Records
---
Amino acid sequence: MPRPAYPENPQLKLLTGGHYAPFTDQDLPGEGMVTELVHAALDITPSPLTYSVTWENDWSRHLFPLLSDKTFDLGFPWLKPDCQATPTDERCTNFLYSDPLMILPIMLFVREDNQFRFQSDADIVGKRLCRPQGYFTHDLERSDRRWLSKGLITLVEGKDPADCLKQVLMGNVDAATINLFLGATLTLEMGLRNAILPLERPLSQEGLYVVTSKAHWRGKSHLNQINAGLQKLKDEGRYHEIVSRHMELFRSQLQ
């Protein structure tokens, strides 16, 4: 059932974008897993505000300028850098983050005939990893890793996620490091489902968040409302129901 029309002058303006299955896309049921979670959290939070959600598929405009100049109050879903390790990162200096909406496993996708063991970080030393250009690298340079600054791995930047998978297939790199959902979707679309597989152990776990500008005078208050709604969804079991339903749909599309 479609949602009722948004109010003409909402108290809260949210920004998201599409082509990010299974999390956000207007063609998905509930407009995606994360979109449905945000709607549900805002609807159930104490003292709910009227709100709208705007779709802008040019993700490069979201943080700067649309959220930084407060054209929109909140944006979702965004990864959070390691702000303790990189306090000068522009996403740390300019934005505040909600509690995580969900945790995203970042996997190592390898050739079926060239799998390597990944039981500890020592198994990564000397490997060639591909990550798409412009993607985060903070999980490769954590305080307990320093893989990049110490030259322990070779990082290859692919043009996009599909390019990284192609590099794996050609044997130019040992693994592509992308999130489980994107990797599973691409291997199916590219006809590589049996040729490229994710290793069992995630390389890292990254949260997806709602963000607001630090310059927004009510930004922290708005995030508190999101957090309260998320907690209530979990307490009532609705969070698990929403996530499970979208996960089941996602898995069925891969069969």
---
Amino acid sequence: MLDFTKLHRVHLLGIGGISMSSIAMLLTKFGIKVSGQDKVFSEKLLSLSDHGITVYVGTELSALDGVDLVVYSSAIKKDSPELIYCQKNNIPTMERYLFLGIVSRQFENTIAIAGTHGKTTTTSMLTRVIMDASIPFCAHIGGEAVGIGNFFYSGNKYFVTEACEYRQSLLALKPDIAIVLNAESDHPDTYKSLTELYDTFDNFVSSSKIAIINGDSNYYKNRQFHNKNVITFGLEKNNHYVISNLKERADACYSYDLAHFGIPICHVELNIESIHTVFNSAAAIICSTLLKVCLPGAVNSIFNFQGVQRRFQKLGYCQGAQVISDYAHHPTEVYASIATAKKKLAERGQLYAVFQPHTFSRTFSLFSEFLQCFTHCDALIICKEYSARETPNMGISAKQLFDNIEHKKKHYYDNILDIAGYLIERIKPNDIILILGAGDIDNLGKILLID
């Protein structure tokens, strides 16, 4: 077992990634000298450099000499020059998710947020609440929360982190408080069936001292935990915490009342869109009560929460059309994002949805669901897939998906520049351009917003 206290120098491969960059910042708080490298330059590398972390772009094997440990992300291939060099020179290595588990145990308590959808938003909401309550803690966030970023540190009482189910990474964490928002098929290269996925979430819940679970979710209904340490929430009346008086405003944001065993405890107003944020905020509020945060303070923090970049993020305007970017890459997320954007139109303009599939295997596994999730957009543009770690033989391409989608106004493009050209020629004031996907499709927004 790695002795964390004996680490003096750590090198991170893929340091520009959202999780790795947060870990890099955290290690400096423990007095550890940190360096790292990434294959591409990014603004995140500049930020890390500004905090005294030595960063390299590309391969720099000499940077590995003299380090106590090399931590690598799942994006780093086993035959990379860096890992081969470590093996030849007996330099210890560890994958990110395992190291995160060790890091979490340096704190008095761990709060881990899991679920196929909503992890980042919920983690960010809870971070905002705890920050405002002035409780010493650390947040490791899988996105850039507005006004917070992807990392926050004020002490070692709590470690708040996302818990990803990819390759069963969440099982490296042994949380004091676990939150399970939902569980759907999203990683077919890890889980061959929904049963396997549910089993992993069961193990995650079992490893925790207290679990807060969405009682309306199919996961909970299929597993039905009869455990005094499980707290459920949702719209249905049999939950411990019940959401009621749910109302949607004209801006597609919601308000609701929350009751505990039938006793009203608070009224919640949200300033970010989508029905999913109702469940995310409820989970964050319930967790905050376990931390003894006063309810009025928690509710106020939720009200002031400004969202997360690439989670229905309003980027600006292009020729009078609003440009919105959303990380949605699962059919459930895509459908919800399009439905929310359609409501915001209020029949004033056209909704242009631009979707980039993420990985061949996910497109194959959820093919029938993808065919049905674009119904409410007026025009659909499919971009060439972001393959990430995969090769074409592992599933279905974006072009194959496009060919099978039934939509009266659909187009396919191999590159983002051509998509920008198509949109600029057609969009009008009051239209909405909704950019969807977890790959590099977000760059489309940067192009469209160039003056």
---
Amino acid sequence: GDRDQNSYILLKKGRFSGFREVTEGVLETLALNNPKAPVAKGDVFALTAKDTVTGANMLFASFHGDTNGLATIPVVTAVTTFARQTLPSDYKLIFGLDANTYGDPDEDQQDVVAFGDFLASLPRKLNSCYGQKPSRINYTTFNARTHLQPQLNKAVAFEEINKSKKGDKNPKDFILFYEDDYSALDVLKDNTGERKYVEGMVFPTLDFPSDHGVT
């Protein structure tokens, strides 16, 4: 899509073969079951491939959620339903997403704990890199606008960055997989570009240009 935000999947050359994009199939499943889900063109990307090292058939998916995370559960449901209905049962899933979940949500925002409960309730249970009971304070975003920008109503005073909801300090980013396929042995967050995450640090910074940490 011709947008500022698009979902991507990056795969190691030579490791995978037989690519087939299945985005439209996922979106058709979404439209059938949750036609009002706030999903824009470019938010969802999905493809199948074969792992030439392990021989496994893979379904890869990437999703950029709407601001309040209201499309997250419908999209995850659509991806897993599509897989269950159209792919052989031996397909393994790796699904990276900005779920836009919240640790202290308003009524119209997706609660991160409820999202974990949803993963465990699916016909074929999903797990995440942060487990089925993700912490409300395992943040992957921490950004707040200063007063040096034109929308002063969104500015956050420095002494209020840990209190104000005008900023974004939330556990939003996940890698999902089927519980019976994989276990998470080691998980790394990074908001520095140096394979480490500094808790309590507002970003982007001059060294790290994203407002989401890398998971």
